[in-house]
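pasting for the record
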Amino acid sequence: MKETIIEADYLITCNPKNSVIKNAAILIIGDEIKALGSKKEIHKDYSASTVISGENKILMPGLVNTHSHSVQTLLRGKADDLALLDWLKEVVIPGESNFTADDVHTSSLLGFAEMIRTGTTTANDMLSTNNAESGIQSAIESGIRTRIGKMLMDVNPNSPTERLDDTDEIIKTINHQIKKYHYTQNQRIKYTLNARFLLSCSPELMKGIVETQEQYDDLMIHTHASESQAECKAVENYYKTSYIRALRDIGALGSETIIAHGIWLDEEEYNILKKTDTRLTHNPSSNSKLASGICDVKKYLELGIIVGLATDGAPCNNNLDMFREMRLATFLQKVKHLNEKILPAQQVLRMATIEGARAINWDKEIGSIEEGKKADVIQIDISDIDALPIYDPVSHVVYSASGKDVSMTMIDGSIVYQDKEFKNFNLNDLRNKVSQYKEKWSH
């Protein structure tokens, strides 16, 4: 079994003590972290066929992107300066609907490539309604760890009484895909039930999603909720109750459900999420660009609700860099509450790592650098001028670093990106595919 030692000037563990070790190293055997400590201790006690230098490097857990749309990456820059429902109606849903299987593969691979390049090792990803298996193949090809699945919608969100797809056929399809992909690739791929949002899912489909989830182990429901005021009003008109109450009444909340956004809630709805142990994924860039509002992360955390961090998709961001999300998340909370102490660097870093892993029920295996956990780690280069001086590596990661500082990404013990080179696919081939799609869109 392959043995690797990775060194670092600073090792950020994100363990329960938030330990940071200077002049550190970790030992990886196969896909697992076997030991960590000072560089001197690790080299004294262990040897390995591969040693990765840590000079001018921070070593830390891979980032966990708890809400992404890799399949939307080809639509980057095509949906700027629009409100949520117009953004969906005018660009995103038509764009996804017109993707061929090859387009889905290209767009998803482009998204996963960007995530890997910028330090994301795990994504909770929503694909398209059609050709979703091509997106799953992209995840497999890229090497990323992911909860992933077909986008589920059976009604027109602009007119929820209008059927788009047969509900029973959707349920049949997802059961087929669950059996084919759930817990595959060394359990690196897990299926998820991606209910787009209540305006695109009939009560019958939501009931089928809940019933399907109950049939399988470790299968999560992933949906958008309470993102904008206009959306909340439309849901209330359709379901005759508020967003979170509607999800509760359907039976769709719980510890195996993660909702994206969660901005516009009343007091009872916050308590419903707490009582049901439902998880939240916070998307600060998306919420800002779409002018949806600022999620009250402080309130969620005070209630003990598990909160992860996310990029959302490229058309509403317009990048997939989790470092930017950490920085913006803490800044927005400080401004919202006029309190500079809210969401400090260490706390927001945990949201992007171990708390993100908790939010998608994967924290027993990933999210921190500890003995026995999966070897999902990244190295950050600190040789450039914007890393001078470093008094606190956690502060640097959150407030100064960017995804472009990532020099190495390892997932499941395998290096998938190092020194501007992707190991599992040809970047030039991907560039050519993207150029071909751009030409097609332009016409």
